[in-house]
Amino acid sequence: EAGVAQSPRYKIIEKRQSVAFWCNPISGHATLYWYQQILGQGPKLLIQFQNNGVVDDSQLPKDRFSAERLKGVDSTLKIQPAKLEDSAVYLCASSLSARRAFFGQGTRLTVV
Amino acid sequence: SQQGEEDPQALSIQEGENATMNCSYKTSINNLQWYRQNSGRGLVHLILIRSNEREKHSGRLRVTLDTSKKSSSLLITASRAADTASYFCATDGSSNTGKLIFGQGTTLQVKP
C-alpha cells in the first residue's frame, strides 16, 4: 500500500516570500490533516479535512496560512507571507477512521 | 496548547535494557496513542489504547493507561539500537474527529 506522499521534502525561503506544500493521502482515506512540528516539540494540528470540507481549522493562522483539498483527494498548504517563526516541519497525515493516522515524511521549511 | 506532557524529555540506555516513557494529559479522552518518529522522518503509529482499557501489549511494547490520573506509560522491553527515536503520546481530546493532540515527546537513545 502506498503511503502518504508529500513534496517538497525541503524548502528554504526568505521571510515575506510565499511557499506551498503538497500532499497526496493514502487512496480511500477521507480524512486529511496538516500538522506543524516546530523543532523539539510535538506536532500541532493546523487543519483537518473530511473529504473536501474543513472539520477543524481553529489553530490555522488564517491571516497567512491557507489550505485546500480540491476533489477530496490531494491537498495543498500555503503560507503567504512567511515569517521566521514558520520554520518547522509540516506533516500531512490521512486516516480511514477517527483512530489511526498515517503520516507522510514531512516538508522541512526554513525561513531565513 | 499541547495536551500532553512527557517524561523524561530524553532517555539514554544500553541495548537490551528496558525503556519507560510517561505521558500525562489534561482532558478526558476516548483513546490514547503512541507514535514513533525517527530523525527527519514522519510519525509511525505504534499502539492505541482505549479509555476503558488499562493495559495493552504489542510485541516488545507495553502500554498502560490510568484515566483517574490522566497518565499513560510506554514500556519498550529488550531495547535495540533501532529503537532510537522520539516517542510521542497523542490523545483525541474526547473528540471523535480523529484530531490528535500530541505531547512534547521523549527522545530515546539506545546505545549498542
Task: Write a structural description.
The complex is a heterodimer of chains A (112) and B (112). By secondary structure, chain A is mostly beta strands. Chain A contains no helices and 11 strands. In chain A, the strands form 2 sheets. In chain A, strands 2, 4, 5, 6, 9, 10 and 11 form a 7-stranded mixed β-sheet that branches. Chain A starts with a strand and ends with a strand. The model of chain A has no long low-confidence stretch (mean pLDDT 94). With 112 residues, chain B is mainly beta. Chain B has no helices and 11 strands. In chain B, strands 2, 4, 5, 9, 10 and 11 form a 6-stranded mixed β-sheet that branches. A 5-stranded antiparallel β-sheet of chain B has the order 1-3-8-7-6, with no helix packed on it. At the A-B interface, strand 5, strand 9 and strand 10 of A face strand 4, strand 5 and strand 10 of B.
Shape of chain A: globular
> Biggest sheet of chain A: strands, sense, closure?
7 strands, mixed
Structural class of chain B: mainly beta
Rg over C-alpha atoms of chain A, rounded to the nearest angstrom: 13 Å
Portion in helices of chain B = under 10%
Task: Quote the beta fraction of chain B.
Answer: over 45%
- Quote the distance from N terminus to C terminus of chain A: 37 Å
